[in-house]
Design brief:
30 helices, N-(1-d-carboxylethyl)-l-norvaline Dehydrogenase, domain 2, alpha/beta, 8-stranded mixed beta sheet, 49% helix, 2-enoyl-CoA Hydratase, Chain A, domain 1, 3 domains, Rossmann fold, 701 residues
């Protein structure tokens, strides 16, 4: 096995190379090897300059997140960084790839930093609910000033090498590979032929204390205006940057470390770590190891409505050639116009260059006959959510598409096995459930049918990576993962609506929990007729013993179907997107209660949240029991990436772990005394509780 750290000494230069594939994560073994190498170089009289480099495709891209929350292993990253910073022999950091988090803190401890042109540098710890804890909050503002340092750390967005050089974070950008350039500089410095470079921004001198404090004041004001001002990490970053100005260096470092440890132990950080690991876990598909995806260059999209145009745009973003098919020339022109509008808005916002827009547009073709799809590698249908329509389309596509082409449905609820059965190649059929707007929303549910071939599933995951989507695997059932849990969520809130809460009170409670919109705001935005159509489709299968809330049906029958109609649960005067409370809706709800003999009761925000979360978690357990989801974190990831569940809450399964499985199970039992069929706890609750386990234990590594 290759050692994680190797040292080469020549011409007065010790080159210490970190080698911990795939991203040189700063694990305990790597830290120990690096510190030992530094100490050997300091003790070696033949060494005058140290070059710290990394093998493989990147400089360390961060700490080993699996160590968070565990007993610390020596040496810590702060110890390693402090040893580099205190080195009497200059240390040159040779950066390439991505220098992120602890990796950038390692580089900050060096005397100077050289970087290849494509390097990206950042401190994204805030996205994990923490702050740089190895000197980053102290060294970065002293190096580049408070304003730039705060922007990097509270935003968490990496900067390019060019920008890093401009603000003084990088001292030189190399024309070619960084390591030969760093070693040449080190040899020249060791021989007395060259000084180590200083970026112009650093050479200009120290920061103005008044400007430094003004930057801190501005940052605090900006944080107070953020959508989630209660998240602790951004504010603690500002505190630490202030400490870098006001305290001696050793005290500032101690202040940072205390803040770091406080944040690591916070529930928000635990949830954000869980979300990060859930993304990594969902991307790993052990059963697809060694399975090669099929070739994918030409994609067809059937249907040019809002969803179809968004899907086509997403495909174009991945460099694919797209053929959009609509039923007639008028509909096709409208679909192509939607794609053009998406591109124009992206250019206007600076999210896309005019050249990229033209390149994408050059790869779009339109047609009104499905025969135009004969040469495509993949076809995604985005037609009306009607099983008969989709089955007929798939039968037609089966006759047109070449052997080996993949047929994908974007259905939100329907049985993909029945759709696949309309073809002579069910092994080539898969569900690709995009979320609207498809070119923006990150989630992609990959729904694997009973006969879907392994290489078709592998192709779907490869496509998701290519177009920048967060892919989660799901099995076939009504609503898959996300919409099943959404249905349970809305059912629980509909019960509360009949019992005494108003839709506005429920929305406020869930927005207060962290959702960007409440359930009734979302219904108005999407259109109430969509969920009504599903309820009508399932009506023949509904158990008459189950409680059924018909308030949404009443609104639809009145024509109050949401924003597009000017009213739904809210009124939207003169086309406004922000709704106002509607007394007529409250009167309709009151009439429905009276007709059922329900006496309204007081409902608190705490009860609304408690019931909503219990319903989501219980449906999640049923999904696990049925094998629709592989693990609890996949369920959480679907809700986080596609349904607005607050990331810093971790998702419904993580939230149940935090609340305590016994407590949630007991809540479900209590609620089941009112409506047993909906609230009855799934069997897995008792099994986990008996064995002292949690949902997290079912996630694996």
């Amino acid at each position: 096995m290759t050692e994680p750290v190797e040292t080469r000494v020549a011409d007065g230069v010790a080159t210490i190379t970190l080698d911990n594939p795939p991203v040189n994560a700063l694990s305990a073994g790597l830290r120990a090897g690096a510190l030992a190498a530094i100490e050997r170089a300091l003790a070696d009289p033949a060494v005058a300059v140290i070059v710290l480099a990394a093998a493989g495709r990147t400089w360390p891209a961060g700490a080993d997140i699996r160590e968070f929350g565990r007993p610390p292993q020596a040496p810590s990253l702060p110890e390693l960084c402090n040893a580099i910073a205190a080195s009497p022999k200059p240390v040159i950091a040779a950066l390439h790839g991505t220098a992120l988090g602890g990796g950038l803190e390692l580089a900050l401890a060096a005397r100077c930093r050289l970087a290849e042109a494509g390097t990206r540098l950042g401190l994204p710890e805030v996205t994990l609910g923490i702050l740089p804890g190895a000197g980053g909050t102290q060294r970065l503002p002293r190096l580049i000033g408070a304003r730039e340092a705060l922007a990097m750390m509270t935003g968490g967005v990496p900067v390019t090498a060019a920008r890093a050089a401009e603000i003084g974070l990088v001292d030189r950008i190399t024309e070619g590979a960084v390591l030969p350039a760093a070693e040449a500089l080190a040899r020249d410095h060791a021989a007395g032929r060259a000084d180590l470079p200083l970026a112009p921004a650093r050479a200009a001198g120290g920061a103005d204390p008044a400007d430094y404090l003004a930057a801190i004041t501005e940052a605090r004001a900006a944080l107070a205006a953020r959508p989630a001002p209660h998240l602790p990490a951004p504010g603690r970053i500002v505190d630490c940057v202030e400490a870098a100005l006001l305290l001696p260096e050793d005290e500032g470092m101690a202040y940072e470390r205390a803040a770091f440890e406080e944040l690591v132990a916070s529930p928000e950080a635990a949830a954000l770590r869980h979300a990060f690991l859930a993304e990594r876990r969902a991307a790993r598909q052990p059963d697809l190891a060694g399975v090669s995806p099929r070739k994918l260059e030409r994609v067809g999209v059937v249907g040019g409505g809002l969803m179809g145009a968004g899907i086509a745009t997403a495909m174009l973003s991945g460099g694919l050639t797209v053929t959009l098919v609509e039923r007639d020339a008028t509909a096709l022109a409208a679909g192509l116009s939607r794609i053009a509008t998406i591109h124009e808005r992206a250019v206007a916002r600076g999210q896309m260059t005019a050249e990229a827009r033209e390149a994408d547009w050059g790869r779009v073709h339109g047609a009104t006959e499905i025969g135009a799809l004969a040469g495509t590698d993949l076809v995604i249908e985005a037609v009306f959510e009607d099983e008969a329509v989709k089955i007929a389309l798939f039968a037609d596509l089966d006759r047109v598409l070449r052997p080996g082409a993949i047929l994908a449905t974007n259905t939100s609820y329907l049985d993909i096995n029945r759709i696949a059965a309309a073809t002579a190649r069910p092994e080539d059929v898969i569900g690709l459930h995009f979320f609207s707007p498809a070119h923006v929303m990150k989630l992609l549910e990959i729904v694997v049918a009973d006969q879907t071939a392994a290489d078709v599933t592998a192709t779907a995951f490869a496509l998701a990576r290519r177009i920048g989507k967060t892919a989660v695997r799901a099995g076939v059932c009504d609503g898959f993962i996300g919409n099943r849990i959404l249905t349970a969520y809305r059912t629980a809130t509909d019960f509360l609506l009949e019992d005494g809460a108003s839709p506005y009170q429920i929305d406020r409670a869930m927005v207060g929990f962290g959702f960007p919109l409440g359930p009734y705001q979302v219904l108005d935005m999407a259109g109430l007729e969509i969920s009504w159509a599903r309820r009508k489709r399932l009506a023949p299968l509904r158990d008459p013993a189950r409680r059924y809330v018909a308030i949404g049906d009443r609104l639809c029958k009145a024509g109050w179907i949401g924003q597009k109609a000017g009213r739904g649960y809210y009124r939207y005067p003169e086309g406004a997107r922000q709704g106002v409370e509607d007394p007529e809706v409250l009167a309709l709800i009151a009439a429905e209660r009276e007709a059922k003999g329900i006496v309204p009761r007081a409902v608190s925000a705490a009860e609304i949240r408690r019931r909503a979360l219990a319903a989501m978690a219980n449906e999640g357990v049923r999904i696990l029991e049925e094998g629709i989801a592989r693990c609890p974190s996949d369920i959480d990831l679907v809700l986080l990436a596609g349904y607005g569940f607050p990331r810093w809450r971790g998702g419904p399964m993580h939230s149940a772990d935090r609340a305590g499985l016994l407590q949630v199970r007991n809540d479900l039992r209590a609620f089941a005394r009112e409506e047993e069929l909906f609230w009855r706890p799934a069997d897995l609750w008792d099994e986990l509780i008996r064995n002292g386990r949690h949902f997290a234990d079912l996630n694996g590594a």
